[in-house]
């Protein structure tokens, strides 16, 4: 099996995050439209986008760790969680303060997408680490 690179792991993490974000948008579109209207759907899109951006940036430490010693990956997963949380805070605070979109659907979809993407990315990192350990022995 070929050596895996940072780009390989990071591309997989980005693809999985974007696909999960799109799935969340697909699942939430009709209920959000019925409950909050068109402005609520806009808030949903912005909320999910915030979580996807945070996840993409938060995946950097894990992708870097996966090309290094496997023992560093668990710490990188924790670091990725911290990065993700800080990015979400930095993006949500001004959007909520300046009321760019409807606040209730926005915050609700940030929370839902954040938790789903956190779970998916953690599982992705764990499976990548498992695969790495099996190929290296």
Got a strand count?
0
Shape label = elongated
Indicate the percent of residues in helices. Answer: over 70%
Please report which band the strand proportion falls in: under 5%, 5-15%, 15-25%, 25-35%, 35-45% or over 45%. under 5%
Structural class category: mainly alpha
Biggest sheet record: none
Helix-strand topology string:
HHH
Based on CA atoms alone, the radius of gyration comes out at 16 Å
Arithmetic mean pLDDT? 92
Number of helices: 3
Stretches where pLDDT falls below 50 for ≥5 residues? none
The separation of the N and C termini measures 12 Å
Number of domains: 1
Helix/strand layout:
Elements: H1 6-66, H2 73-97, H3 103-136
Helix pairs in contact: 1-2, 1-3, 2-3
Question: What labels describe this entry?
Answer:
about 140 residues; mainly alpha; about 0% strand
Report on the architecture of this protein.
With 137 residues, this protein is mainly alpha-helical. It has one domain (6-136). The chain has three helices and no strands. Helix 1 (6-66) packs across helix 2. The longest helix has 61 residues, at 6-66. The chain is elongated.
Structure summarized in a few sentences:
This protein has about 140 residues and is mainly α. The chain has helices at about 5-65, 75-95, 105-135.
């Amino acid at each position: 099996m070929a050596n895996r690179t940072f780009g390989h792991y990071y591309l997989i993490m980005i693809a999985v995050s974007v696909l999960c974000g799109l799935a969340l948008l697909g699942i939430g579109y009709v209920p959000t439209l019925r409950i909050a209207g068109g402005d609520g759907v806009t808030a949903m899109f912005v909320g999910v986008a915030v979580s996807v951006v945070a996840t993409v940036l938060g995946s950097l430490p894990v992708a870097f760790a996966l090309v290094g010693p496997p023992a560093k990956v668990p710490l990188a997963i924790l670091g990725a969680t911290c990065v993700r949380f800080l990015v979400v805070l930095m993006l949500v605070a001004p959007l909520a303060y300046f009321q760019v979109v409807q606040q209730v659907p926005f915050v609700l979809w940030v929370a839902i997408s954040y938790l789903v993407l956190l779970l998916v990315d953690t599982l992705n990192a764990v499976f990548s680490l498992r695969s790495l350990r099996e190929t290296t022995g």
